[in-house]
Amino acid sequence: MNDDTSRRVNRGRRKLLAGLGALGAGTLLPGCDDSISRNPQVREALGSMEKLTRGAQRLVASRQSLAQEFDKSDIAPVFRANGTTDPQEPEYLRMVENGFADWQLRVDGLVNRPLELSLAQLREMPSRTQITRHDCVEGWSCIGEWTGVVLGDLLDQAEPHDNARFVVFHCADHTYGRSDLYYESLDMIESYHPQTILAYDLNGDALPVANGAPIRLRAERQLGYKHAKYVMRVEVVESFRDLYGGKGGYWEDRGYEWWAGI
Amino acid sequence: MTSPANTATDHEPPSGSPSPESSNTRLIKRHSPGTRVWHWINLVALVILLMSGLQIFNAHPTLYWGDQSLSENAVLAIGARRTAEGEARGYLQISDYRFDTTGVLGWSQHNDEYSQRAFPAWATLPGSKWLAMGRNWHFLAAWIFATSLVAYLIYTVIRRQRRRQIFPSAHQWRQMKQTFLDHARFRFHHVSDYNVIQKLTYIVVLFGLLPMLVLSGLAMSPTMDAAWPWLPEMFGGRQSARTFHFIGAVAIVLFVVIHVGLVVISGFFNNLRSMVTGTYRINVSDEANQRDER
């Protein structure tokens, strides 16, 4: 390499390094100014990392790998309630008043046999009890004992179509008074995971209103916002694009990742 | 090209005029392109990770030991409270000790308005309270940081030259006391090799601190914990992992402060140039002394 080329290469390198430095300095500024974070292209680029994370986590976690289960002695004295804790929807208040006696869970959408099940019918089905750690996206964790129907058993009864790709959970509450109802969705792998249950008991007693009565979803390999409370209807779909904000969940419509594995 | 044995002839200053120090100094190639690129990528990634990490921390500004968040196991909390006179004060609580941190931690100003927030807006990414976006930034930078860390550690272990740069020689171990004394007196030898303090620091950071940050971060993921149950266990539970992640971040900040301080006082331009272009000026007599001692 003669001197001239080597100098040119060096200049090119210097430019690259200066660029990296400028990028570094640039990242210090948005601390005070959110304009970079509000840029739609930046948000899309950042959002695409979610697919990489999901792919990598699906690679290392098998379909069956279980979330850790704890001992009775690990159960928290009070299970922390978050999000909606006291729904004020008149229809819901009526159901609370009569102990969910005429509440029915609908399982429909892309299924051969739509179901309508009362709380008593759900309790008669085979159940699963698990003591697991709930991990909130905010950072805290809480251990509780959940009993409920394995979602896979319900889906087997309903017989999903071959094109079924997601299971959507429709809820009774308008979180923080917003116009849209809370909802969530799982893909078929998480829906058929052995620890994915619709829980009706917490720590041996009927699920309290604060924690999602009469039933809530437990998806133990996902963060807390996936665990929909006050579930009224389970809908099997091919795509959630036409539901609410189109991102597959209440918090997803507000910028959170659909893949809540981390 | 990256060998420290390279002679100075190819690397004279572009001006061509002889430098006043040129009689007893010589330019060498110190840092390989891989090291230099890794270094500056890390700077960008770590700044994003730190600031977005503080945004995430702000969503629940308390740290605990164990699996879950029980108030009796809290070790650190940042918050705000009102005095009897109704004045809001920010505080940092570590174990039983409480410090007034009004204006910075717990209670600080953003857009001309005071509000309760653990870390102030100037330290977080984004500045406003925005957990979803903080997570997006964090995971983008985490992917870049973790993959380049793994690549760099492999590169360090498999390359003989890198191993010699990072692991102290038998002679250096014997000279350890002298090296500490020289450092304490701010006497820096400008030679091609790292001294034993530098090498030990880099080993602890490269093979201890940085991997610990990645692993404790992964231990907070419920899917990772299902896949690798040993992960939260090695930290003593998910909340302990979160606490270690925070301690690791503080350690990185301390490392950077000391690192930049030493870079400045031991020859700022020379050090910075060696990490940008790779070229580093060594002291010929220092270098000769070091060789003779070997």
TrEMBL record, chain A:
Residues 101-239 form the Oxidoreductase molybdopterin-binding domain. SUPFAM superfamilies: Oxidoreductase molybdopterin-binding domain. PROSITE patterns: TAT. Pfam families: Oxidored_molyb. InterPro entries: OxRdtase_Mopterin-bd_dom, OxRdtase_Mopterin-bd_sf, TAT_signal. This is Molybdopterin oxidoreductase.
Automatic annotation (TrEMBL), chain B:
SUPFAM superfamilies: Transmembrane di-heme cytochromes. It is found in: Cell membrane. It is a multi-pass membrane protein. Residues 1-27 are annotated as: Disordered. Residues 30-278 form the Cytochrome b561 bacterial/Ni-hydrogenase domain. GO terms for cellular component: plasma membrane. The keyword Ion transport does not apply. Pfam families: Ni_hydr_CYTB (PF01292). It comes from the Bacteria. Keywords: Cell membrane, Membrane, Transmembrane, Transmembrane helix. One of its GO terms (biological process) is respiratory electron transport chain. The chain crosses the membrane at residues 37-57, 137-158, 200-224, 244-265. GO terms for molecular function: electron transfer activity; heme binding. PANTHER family: NI/FE-HYDROGENASE 1 B-TYPE CYTOCHROME SUBUNIT, NI_FE-HYDROGENASE 1 B-TYPE CYTOCHROME SUBUNIT-RELATED. This is Thiosulfate reductase cytochrome b subunit. It comes from Halomonas cupida. The lineage of its organism: Bacteria, Pseudomonadati, Pseudomonadota, Gammaproteobacteria, Oceanospirillales.
